[in-house]
Sequence to fold (180 residues):
Amino acid sequence: MRGKGVKAAKEAALPIIINDTSLDVPADPRVTLLDFLRHHAGLTGTKKGCDHGQCGACTVLVNGMRINSCLALAIAHDGDTVTTIEGLGTPDAPSVMQQAFVDHDAMQCGYCTPGQICSATAMLQEIAAGWPSDVSTNLDGDISASAEEIRERMSGNLCRCGAYANIVSAIGEVAGRDRV
Fold:
């Protein structure tokens, strides 16, 4: 016999802000943020790759920080602000990072691209905030977006087509470097 708590939780509404739009969508507490975005919010730009947090195709920004949405329960993000690839820009007005990916041909099949762009956007914010990585040459907060730094920070996002060189170039351009 199911307890009242299970039924009440299934019928609970999940208030969440997605791409500057507040949604109050009924959500099963077992639904991942990825499935919530794709199936409940109708935002299919975020992709399901491995569904194990290993490929990065599902990367979104939650309160400005990148996460693998396949590993997060939607109910855990009650009240959070989620930004998906659709919230970064549009085909008519792409974000700087989206445009750089196009300009540098930083995609082939495009499946991983939404996660790559979301991750790259947050990664540059991490560098600007002075967060060091394993390859940072100093820990005083003065970190440059070198090719090595970009590769390290993007290592959680896989591209089966192997467009890594162009991805690094696109991110480097946005970081203010002509060549990385």
Q: What stands out?
A: The domain at 4-88 is CATH 3.10.20.30 (Ubiquitin-like (UB roll)). The CA atoms of residues 126 and 132 lie 8 Å apart.
